[in-house]
Amino acid sequence: AMWAMKAYNHAEVYFNLISSVDPKFLKLTKLDDKIYSTFRESFKDLDVKVLTHDQLKSDTAKERWRPFCNQFEGLVEDFNFGTLLRLDCEKDYVEDNTVFATRIQFFAIEIARNREGLNNTVNHLRTSEEPSSITRVS
């Protein structure tokens, strides 16, 4: 149960971060550039805006992901620990939009989403909901 709580807390912190800071300026790891370039070499055509369970969990997908993930063993701390990943980057972490993935998959996909401007929707929605002026309560 402890790992589930840790994964949930990680998801909540990350979503709050991309909601409050322009995602294109976020640096998730010291190896963001390497993770992104290696990810895009391995998954050139993967549309990270909306993912499916099959793209991450099918036997074929696991065969494609395994070599990518294993490159980061010893380089990215806890690279194979479980974390929560949003399937549709324009939506929050809710049950039907969340999949369990490895940390390196999370980093690869979220770095791509940030750099490719796909997480901007979440940021713009949250910042447009904030009041434009402070209202005093007496």
Automatic annotation (TrEMBL):
InterPro entries to which the protein is assigned, alphabetical: PBDC1-like_dom_sf, PBDC1_metazoa/fungi, Polysacc_synth_dom
Annotated ranges, domain Polysaccharide biosynthesis: 2-123
Protein origin, superkingdom: Eukaryota
One GO cellular component, as annotated: cytoplasm
Pfam families on file: PBDC1
Protein name: Polysaccharide biosynthesis domain containing 1
Organism of this sequence: Acanthochromis polyacanthus
